[in-house]
Design a protein that fits this description.
Layout lengths: L29 H12 L41
């Protein structure tokens, strides 16, 4: 985990095995997501929350285009014989 969760409580007692995550909500550009993550990690949250990965932000420039795929799920499983 990279983002601090100090002060955030689980939805219900007994559900501690379902881990929540902290991050921005809503439609965001890559630049917005980078700004958010950079701002969080510049605060060095691992100093107060020792379960976090102590890894500072680093900017990486990909040397090729990145492809992102989305698989939509309508709730049904289709079996195919191969």
């Amino acid at each position: 985990m990279r983002n601090p969760m100090v002060g955030i409580h689980v939805a219900a007692l007994g559900q501690e095995s379902i881990h929540g995550v902290v991050g921005p909500m809503g439609p965001a550009s890559i630049e917005d997501l980078e700004l958010f993550q950079k701002a969080v990690l510049e605060q060095e949250p691992w100093e107060s929350e020792t379960s976090l990965v102590p890894l500072p932000w680093k900017t990486v420039t990909p040397n090729r285009d990145i492809t992102v795929a989305i698989m939509w799920d309508d709730g049904y499983v289709i079996h195919r014989n191969l």
